[in-house]
Amino acid sequence: MYSSDFGKDFLWGVATAAAQIEGAASVYGKGPSIWDTFSKKPGKIKKGHKPDEACDFYHRYEQDIAMVKTLGFKVFRMSIAWSRIFPLGGGTVNAEGVAFYHEVIDECLKNDLIPMVTLYHWDLPEALSKEGGWTAYGINNAFNEYALFCAKEYGDKVKQWIVINEPFGFTSLGYMLGVHAPGLTGVTNFFEAALHTAIAQADGAKILRAEVNQAVIGTAFSCSEIVPYSHSDQDVMIAKRTDILMNRFFLEPALGLGFPTGNWDVLEKFAISYSTWRHQSRMAFDFDFIGIQNYFPLVIKYNAFIPVVQAWEVKAKSRKVPHTAMGWEINADSFYRIIKQFATYPQVKNIMITENGAAFHDKLIDGKIEDGERVDYFKAYLAAMLKAKNEGINITGYLAWTLMDNFEWAEGYQARFGLVHNDFKTQQRTIKQSGYWWQEFLSK
Ligand code: BGC
């Protein structure tokens, strides 16, 4: 299997996110983001790691972009740090930050790479978080100001856009479970954040459509095949609910279908009280592509003691199935099935795999990084994607997560997902075996 098996127009790339690679977190005029403040709170990030320096991409972007080219990719997915443009979330613009993204984008174009820009990859300006962040009604005006600015500023050079990265990911982890920034908990916070995020997703897309000539606009959803632990009615019912939350909750409003409720009283109440008919049309947009990001399937069991969702995850480790260093099940067939699930909506025109990858305990042998497990992972997942594509699903591209080991949110620097190893003390980059495997795969 080589890249040419996927057709000559297929877009191959690597994905990154500002807060995970840039560093320079509190200099050059950048305002603090919620991840800067969250990481300063004790116990929130493993080993007390902070995104302050990350991969120092801010100073090393030329070398890193050259590396993307060396590996043979065509697309460089990056995100803009909102608080580097608007240190306070809106109003005063930080010219140095604006110039930085021009430089990065220009560097991509110089290297014949397509820059794909994510507007929001989780690093909300702290100033907005103080006013309630995604739970506050005012967030939509602030987001629209930011989206409009980026569209006008970069739209001549950037044609590929992703509005929001994993709405379910950050609203559930950050506003319901409290394990990601800003660390809020509770169902009410989640629902408020979800509604404003679903609105922002479509608002941002509409702004890009109006401002950017020939824009190709997508948004990126996390997705996981949900498998009931047993055939019992309760396990099947709870698996369906989990599927609604994890796979359908943000997708369906974007497709114009409103929030799904699945006869679940909790969601029915939410749909009635929070989401009126006005919101239903506002949350919809005819996206050029639907980004899907898959890392694991979930096996779900009913558990009456878990509040609200009553769903309990039966971990891959306890089921003794192959898993990554994050404990995430490795299952390429499940990747194939979730692609098919997303493709069943007639409103989904194209699918792009905007993230997929795995963390492993890479080994350093004779100065080389041996990560055969990652190579096997990609081989299996790409074969599964090819199968779906050959069955007629319009898959337009695949972006590997991620270029280099980076700041993996609450896991800090320990979880390594890169095709390139990074030594965080010296910032020395070393291409891993998997990076060379990609180079070969993309060469034919
Ligand atoms: C996120 C990335 C993250 C990756 C691995 C995705 O949910 O978009 O930022 O690093 O998963 O956890």
From TrEMBL:
It comes from the Bacteria. Substrate binds at residues 20, 121, 165, 295, 401, 408-409. The keyword Transcription regulation does not apply. Gene3D superfamilies: Glycosidases (3.20.20.80). This is Beta-glucosidase. The active site is at residues 166, 355. Its EC number is 3.2.1.21. Keywords: Carbohydrate metabolism, Cellulose degradation, Glycosidase, Hydrolase, Polysaccharide degradation. It catalyses: Hydrolysis of terminal, non-reducing beta-D-glucosyl residues with release of beta-D-glucose. GO terms for biological process: cellulose catabolic process. Belongs to the glycosyl hydrolase 1 family. It holds the Pfam family Glyco_hydro_1. SUPFAM superfamilies: (Trans)glycosidases. It is an enzyme of class 3 (hydrolase). One of its GO terms (cellular component) is cytosol. One of its GO terms (molecular function) is beta-glucosidase activity.
